[in-house]
Amino acid sequence: MIAAILSTGTELTRGELLNSNATWLAAELTLLDAKVTTILTVGDCEDRIAEAFQQLSLGHDVVVCTGGLGPTTDDLTAASLARAAGVGLETHEPSLLAIKNRLLAVGRSLTATNAKQADLPQGSIALPNTAGTAPGFSFRFNRATVYCLPGVPSEMKAMFEACVEPRLEKAGQVCIQVVIRTFGMPESAVNDALRSVEGKFGVTLGYRVHFPELQVKVLAMRNSTREASELAGAAANAVCEILGSRVVYARGNATLPAVLGKMLRERQLRFGCAESCTGGSVSALLTEEPGISDVFVGSVVAYSNEVKERLLGVPGQLIAEHGAVSAAVALSMAEGARRALGCDWSLAITGIAGPTGETPSKPVGTVHFGVSGPNLSRHHHRVFHGERTRVQRAAAFSGLNWLRCLLDDPTAEPV
Amino acid sequence: MIAAILSTGTELTRGELLNSNATWLAAELTLLDAKVTTILTVGDCEDRIAEAFQQLSLGHDVVVCTGGLGPTTDDLTAASLARAAGVGLETHEPSLLAIKNRLLAVGRSLTATNAKQADLPQGSIALPNTAGTAPGFSFRFNRATVYCLPGVPSEMKAMFEACVEPRLEKAGQVCIQVVIRTFGMPESAVNDALRSVEGKFGVTLGYRVHFPELQVKVLAMRNSTREASELAGAAANAVCEILGSRVVYARGNATLPAVLGKMLRERQLRFGCAESCTGGSVSALLTEEPGISDVFVGSVVAYSNEVKERLLGVPGQLIAEHGAVSAAVALSMAEGARRALGCDWSLAITGIAGPTGETPSKPVGTVHFGVSGPNLSRHHHRVFHGERTRVQRAAAFSGLNWLRCLLDDPTAEPV
Asked: Fewest C-beta atoms under 10 Å: which of A301, B6, B186, B408?
């Protein structure tokens, strides 16, 4: 199967936005055994988009297009494809109704601008958009099946997985993919460690960085679902064995907060945080997870030293003696959080996120972690690299992953 | 000047690497007043690269190609371009010598593999590589001047700046862009409201959604910097006027937390939060901003009702009577946060982020906001739509944006 990707958008040709959609699609299509020969990006110009559809549809079996499905005047995908193919546009009534209902639900009414999103090239098959208003569509043109998806990454990915992927699976071959979620080991080290797996099992491994996580994808293709599943499972077991449980936190779709939530729930423990340099991002990560409220009680974001003293009871003298970024203060914050929040376990994080604030002995990126639990009080520190938000995000994941390890083994060292 | 970018590399068409080179080049070329119509990525395949050169050189004045100049068998740029143009390859002796010397300096000797890097299409002009071994080159082909640069970003950028930029003629037009940052008005409504601006001023408007924000870009092209700046400024003023100050929170690069930080700093106010359904994401947003610690003291993430009582002093009876998601509790949380954190102003957010937890009178997405300040106590509520993390993010921005308006005008209604 020969595939091409067409990205539309003047924000791309003007260099205002990284084309991460094309990279994501290229990786997905490659995993589905398609050969992506071409990624073409053109601006919001009907002539050029029409010409691109014409060209790409001649030499490819599949063309996946992103962007240009929105309501504004620079959204031209449907009109361009219709023109290239010499057909008209027609309103897809179910999509129009869906757009209308979506607008009604937010107290707005349908305008001509919004209605335009339901106008599809004649002969299209509409693809529902579960996460936004614009429907996508597929359209047979020359040699190719053309799939037009929204440009918003979350909508595009959801639509690709729900509507395109099932249509692309190779005839007679079943493709099973197992995702293994890891944290704390650099991509090149993971790559080196897993070097033998592809050859040994006859599977394909893919790597995707979701900073600071790394996902390893094990892809097995066989003649039956059973064979492909067994093979993918065996290879995934080998991957987990090689990387170890401190690095691998989940198989499948579970996030780190979800895994932690499940562990706390099973143990009937209540958890809270004290955050300084991460500024609420540990709590924000946890509360992205639906249903976390039965184990997560809350946090004290003690950004100023005064709040560390007032709400967490950290002695002012301790801060004066050791500095706010220190083992002693991290432990005192963790213990203070347990008391103040009335929970069983707590995680405290205090550090220097940068770009300023470093001292000769404490470079930017220095982060101290404290964990307090029944009969447990642990500390460690690390130096993270990169800019402020990367330090914050890496520190938040690092703290939560260590907590995950400690719940299983109170002597666990951080990865 | 019409330009195209050609990126070569199977690591790009397999989705293993984000094409940040193309984005960087597109932004640079746009700044130089070139119109980038096309960004084309093809794998390491001589046929496809040759075809790409043939096609792009017909319709563009400038083609910038990256990648494929290295020593390995999949480095095919010079051979592909020579084939497309019907010329041979010839060794560029000064480049060969430079490669030899560079290898000698690191204790290696010249091999045939390395020597290949000095073979350029006949008629090329070599471009020196100050940061690596492979020289780049420029080559006249059809309508275009083709510039072939290395794929390693640092080498590519250095060569573009040193060798390509000075050769690109300015078309005598200067392009000035003003970014206007907005929150709270849907994209289609903004589009409708600004419909007359392009025609009236002779500028181009662009829109970019960074959920839940929307950026409006005003682009003006004129013969001089002064004319273009004045035009862009006048059109930007009109945009700000039309949308109003509750919707427009900044011009240029400032984030909403940065704008708020600046306002609090100027007023010498200290600020803190009480978060329930946003779970720390307001605090996380604020603390992404370097230097916010001089105005932001911290937050109480009161996810459980018990923490609302313990740390914020919300009366249990108030929660029992009105429910945790209510005007009374939002106001009590805001006042409690000011007391507990010892700050001048506070924002409290309590709501139902979903997907569960709704009641007949409180659908998923219902969020109550409380703001407490010296002689000020305000409340409002809204229903947000979409999935959990979108509700949380929209609520966080909405709260911060309202606070921004209230600092200027204590009677301001939320947008």
From this structure: B408
